Amino acid sequence: MYLSNIKEAQSIVLNGPGILNARKQSLVGPEQGWDGWVMRQFTLGKDGQTPKHSHPWPHINYIISGKGTLFLDGKEQSVESGSVAYIPGGEEHQFRNVGDEEFAFICIVPEEGDK
């Protein structure tokens, strides 16, 4: 069993090509007993974004707060608090914050996707 609070999770500022104003917190994974999977929270500040990218593993997303866009299937689609998305492996995708407040989402990936 594992119980914690997001306030206790280390927040890592992400840097790299195409990344703007983004942080990641690893919440539950193999270290907490969930073998093979990892649940993370990404937070994008004002004008923040992830890079347009693809990878072989799928992931599941749940938007916690804010307003943003998800680039998927070659087009940008609006997402907001309560939106959910499944992104198959190999699909190019990108999240962007289009609001004035932080845009935060949960991202669940196989363990290989969090290396």
UniProtKB/TrEMBL annotation:
Classification via CDD domains: cupin_TM1459-like
Domain Cupin type-2: start-end pairs: 42-109
UniProt keywords, alphabetically: Metal-binding
Record has ATP-binding as a keyword: no
Organism domain of life: Bacteria
UniProt xrefs under Pfam families: Cupin_2
GO molecular function, one term: metal ion binding
Keyword Metal-binding: yes
PANTHER family named in the record: CUPIN TYPE-2 DOMAIN-CONTAINING PROTEIN (PTHR35848:SF6), OXALATE-BINDING PROTEIN (PTHR35848)
Protein name: Cupin domain-containing protein
Species annotation: Heliobacterium mobile (Heliobacillus mobilis)
Lineage: Bacteria, Bacillati, Bacillota, Clostridia, Eubacteriales
